[in-house]
Design a protein that fits this description.
This protein is α/β, with parallel strands linked by helices. Helices cover 36% and strands 22% of the residues.
Amino acid sequence: MTGSRDAGAPAVELAGIAIAFTLSDRSTYRAVQGIDLQVAAGEFVAIVGPTGCGKSTLLNASAGLLQPSAGTVRIFGTPLAGLNRRAGYLFQQDALMPWKTALDNVAVALEPAGIGRGEARARALEWLGRVGLKGFADRYPHMLSGGQRKRVALAQILIRDPEILLMDEPFGPLDAQTRQIMGNLLLDLWAADRKAVLFVTHDLEEAIALADRVIVMSAGPAAGLIGDHPVPLARPRDIAEIRLDPEFHAIHRTIWGSLRAEVQRAYAQGEAAP
């Protein structure tokens, strides 16, 4: 439940965030530095950048899984202390329990709320229907395709009705056709109640097709934000069709113009590393 302090406050605010790690040789690696980013309530923001630039690190800080070395994470205006209970986190690899059916994997997400088994299973069946898997409720994860498992994982997150979705390369392991299907499903579900979304991807086309804004990160170490690009494409969108729009290509050229040099710089650093 939101409070009066939520009115007008960003769903996620990263203010002056720096994150550093101590390496095995006791040296310090500065992952990100000077990050200022806001995600408004109901806004879909995608983050792109070179491999290893700290995109997932920012998600982990937003989830409360990682404590920044400097700066503040605020959730609807309140400084984050501990886990972000108002967010759902969808990782690249799903966290489905192999000994539970699809129905029970979704229903188990309601256990911490003290919801009884019967009601939890009824709600879970409804959510499996919303992601197109009502007929697969009794299947175990090993009996499902990659795309089907991802849909179960999405239902597992959304059944809790989080106010914020944190998504880390959620469709990365899927083939191109399944990625488009999952992208359209995500947009349909998002359009129903417009949760705030912070979405990490390596795929610039995916970012543009999904998001209201695309944030570009520089190569690390001490990666920062080097671009904040609005995506004024009309909604609702179809992932395949929107990529044929001339405005889509214009946005892609603009963003790639700033991203390309950072990708090349990250690659050169990898080649030079011992």
